[in-house]
């Protein structure tokens, strides 16, 4: 990946925000990296001899989405040897293009505001919604300023570049197949056939929570939500995001960059199957009236898992930390996933540093805080769904009202 323009490799920039008590340097001593200068001597390797890849790290971050890259950047800036393993190459469109205003302070704290601006994000002053009523309304302004519409794949790539620029080794197109205890910590088996070892592993694999589910944690799912998603040409690239409820669930459409509009029907996995909502004809037939005004024929539909869950940690004996959606994933109606992932990275990095020093206290505090956040989220989610009561007999809404009624 191309080096990040802002912070030259090897240069450490102190983070100004979001440290937890665990972010004290309780881990191993920093290993100062040599700075390069224009007068450095270079060694030219003959007949294609390649530099042997480093395989031994302080921290291995599995997943290079916003949570993984932000955690890796923080740790690398603090001098730890970090590898990021990312399955994709950020070359296909990704969902999650509407960033809430709350991302702005996190981008600043990470020192990535400049490369973010270089992506040409479009300000978002709110989302039009038709939820519980036939009329539509917009959200009000936020103290952090506007939110943003971005090309999500480009945004994720920018954050991975920022992790690399901070000194992390970012390996794209690499799937982590297995993580097993070994040596001084963990051995990770890679799709390339190789292995890397690390003292602490970070599960940043998103809603799949691939690592944590196989360790001392239980994934508690709160629903069966999926997003049946299509990308269509955007007739109005300056337009608003739009949320609209229908008996089968709710629609969201928004500008997704590069002249595209993303449109998704959020419904339950079993309802999508039984109603054949993943076929183009049934999907298009369920478009809400306002959404239909904006969404033309979409290409191939993708079913994106969107269920909310909490990865509940039972033990703290093993040195791993879950961050972002892997730790706690929320319903996309909150519009807060990326902001939450970036915020969580600060605390997760603190927990990792403490684990490197043998202290599990900050990890416990981090998990306790996520438990409290989960409780608050479940109340908020119940409020959202209780506000739509036009289809009490429709299965999607009946399920959600039943949950809200138990409060
Ligand atoms: C339908 C939908 C719409 C959404 N819309 C919004 C929105 O508009 N705004 C918003 O803020 N949030 C939105 N979200 C939520 C947001 O996308 C997530 O909260 C956010 O992406 C979480 O970041 P993350 O880094 O934890 O996980 P992810 O972004 O999911 O990143 C996980 C990464 O791990 C990689 N990975 C997984 N397994 C492996 C493996 N074994 N080896 C190597 N790499 C692996 C994946 O390729 C991926 O890059 C939406 C979510 C859904 C489901």
UniProtKB/TrEMBL annotation:
Q: Which residues form the FAD-binding domain?
A: 57-362
- InterPro entries from the entry? FAD-bd, FAD/NAD-bd_sf, Flavin-dep_Halogenase_NPB
Please name the Gene3D superfamilies in this protein's record.
Answer: 3.30.9.100, FAD/NAD(P)-binding domain
**Which residue stretches belong to region Disordered?**
1-41
Residues folding into a coiled coil are none
The protein's GO terms of the molecular function aspect are: FAD binding
- Give the compositionally biased regions (Basic residues): 21-36
Q: Which PANTHER family does the entry link to?
A: FAD-BINDING PROTEIN (PTHR43747), SLR1998 PROTEIN (PTHR43747:SF1)
Into which family does the record put it?
Belongs to the flavin-dependent halogenase family. Bacterial tryptophan halogenase subfamily.
Q: What is this protein called?
A: FAD-dependent oxidoreductase
């Amino acid at each position: 990946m191309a080096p990040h323009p802002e912070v030259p490799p090897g240069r450490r920039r102190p983070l100004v925000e979001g440290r937890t008590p665990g972010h004290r340097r309780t881990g191993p001593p920093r290993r100062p990296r040599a700075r390069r200068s224009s007068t450095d001597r270079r060694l030219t390797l003959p007949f294609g001899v390649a530099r042997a890849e480093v395989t031994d790290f302080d921290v291995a971050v599995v997943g290079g989405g916003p949570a993984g890259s932000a955690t890796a950047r923080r740790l690398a800036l603090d001098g730890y040897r970090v590898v990021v393993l990312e399955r994709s190459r950020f070359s296909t469109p990704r969902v999650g293009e509407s960033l809430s205003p709350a991302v702005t302070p996190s981008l600043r704290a990470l020192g990535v505001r400049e490369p973010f601006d270089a992506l040409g994000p479009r300000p978002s002053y709110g989302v039009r919604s038709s939820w519980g009523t036939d009329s539509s309304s917009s959200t009000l302004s936020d103290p952090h300023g506007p939110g943003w519409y971005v090309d999500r794949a480009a945004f994720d790539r920018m954050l991975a570049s920022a992790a690399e620029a901070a000194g992390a080794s970012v390996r794209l197109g690499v799937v982590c197949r297995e993580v097993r205890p070994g040596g001084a910590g963990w051995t990770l088996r890679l799709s390339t056939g190789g292995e890397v070892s690390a003292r602490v592993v970070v599960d940043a694999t998103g809603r799949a929570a691939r690592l944590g589910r196989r360790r001392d944690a239980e994934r508690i799912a709160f629903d069966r939500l999926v997003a049946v998603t299509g990308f269509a040409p955007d007739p109005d690239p300056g337009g608003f995001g739009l949320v609209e409820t229908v008996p089968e669930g709710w629609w969201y459409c928004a500008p997704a960059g590069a002249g595209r509009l993303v449109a998704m029907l959020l419904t339950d996995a079993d309802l999508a199957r039984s109603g054949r909502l993943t076929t183009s004809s049934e999907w298009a037939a369920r478009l809400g009236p306002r959404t239909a005004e904006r969404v033309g024929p979409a290409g191939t539909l993708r079913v994106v898992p969107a269920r909310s869950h909490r990865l509940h940690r039972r033990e703290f004996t093993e040195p791993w930390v879950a961050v972002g959606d892997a730790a706690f994933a929320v319903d996309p109606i909150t519009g807060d996933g990326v902001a939450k992932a970036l915020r969580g990275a600060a605390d997760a990095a603190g927990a990792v540093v403490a684990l490197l020093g043998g202290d599990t206290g900050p990890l416990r505090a981090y998990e306790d805080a996520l438990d409290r956040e989960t409780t608050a989220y479940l109340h908020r989610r119940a409020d959202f769904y209780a506000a739509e009561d036009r289809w009490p007999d429709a299965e999607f809404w009946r399920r959600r009202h039943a949950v809200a009624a138990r409060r």
